[in-house]
Design goal:
By secondary structure, the chain is α+β, with helices and mostly antiparallel strands. Helix content is 26%, strand content 15%. It is built from 3 helices and 6 strands; from the N terminus they run H-E-E-E-H-E-E-E-H. A 6-stranded antiparallel β-sheet has the order 1-2-3-5-4-6. It is globular, with a radius of gyration of 14 Å. The N terminus is likely disordered.
C-alpha cells in the first residue's frame, strides 16, 4: 500500500489537472492555488493532504506566484478543522483570520510569514518545472 500511494497521488493530480483554469498556480507540492479576488485565494484539496500541505501551497503562491517578500503575512480564513475533500481559504489580510490549525507558542497573531509557510514544502519539489 505504501508503494501505491505515490502512484495514486499522481493519478489524482493528473485527473484534477484538467479542471485548472489559466489563473491557477501549481505549488511545489502539486496543490492548485486559485486566486479568489483581492487578497484572497483558495488552496484546493489534492488527495492525501494535511494542514502543512495547504500552508506550503499558500506560502509558495505568495512567494513565487505573487512575487511578494518572504515576510508577507498569510492568514487562514476557513476555520479548522477542514472536512474531508475540502480545500482551505487564505488571505493576506487579517480581517477574517481564523485559527491556523497549528499549535504555536509565542505567535504574535493568527498568521504566518510566507517564508515560514513555504518551509512546509517538500525538499524535492513535486513539480520542479513550474
Amino acid at each position: 500500500m505504501r508503494a501505491l500511494a505515490p502512484l495514486l497521488t499522481a493519478a489524482a493530480l493528473a485527473l484534477s489537472a484538467g479542471t485548472a483554469s489559466a489563473g491557477d498556480f501549481l505549488a511545489l507540492n502539486g496543490l492548485r492555488v486559485v486566486p479568489a479576488g483581492g487578497q484572497e485565494f483558495h488552496v484546493a484539496f489534492g488527495g492525501l493532504t494535511g494542514n502543512d500541505d495547504f500552508w506550503c501551497a499558500a506560502g509558495d503562491f505568495v512567494l513565487r506566484g505573487l512575487g511578494l517578500p518572504p515576510s508577507t503575512r498569510i492568514y487562514r480564513t476557513s476555520p479548522p478543522p477542514r472536512r474531508a475533500g475540502e480545500g482551505v481559504d487564505f488571505s493576506l489580510s487579517d480581517a477574517r483570520a481564523a485559527d491556523s490549525g497549528f499549535t504555536r507558542f509565542g505567535a504574535r497573531d493568527k498568521g504566518m510569514s510566507a517564508a515560514a509557510a513555504q518551509h512546509f514544502c517538500p525538499l524535492v519539489p513535486f513539480f520542479p518545472f513550474n
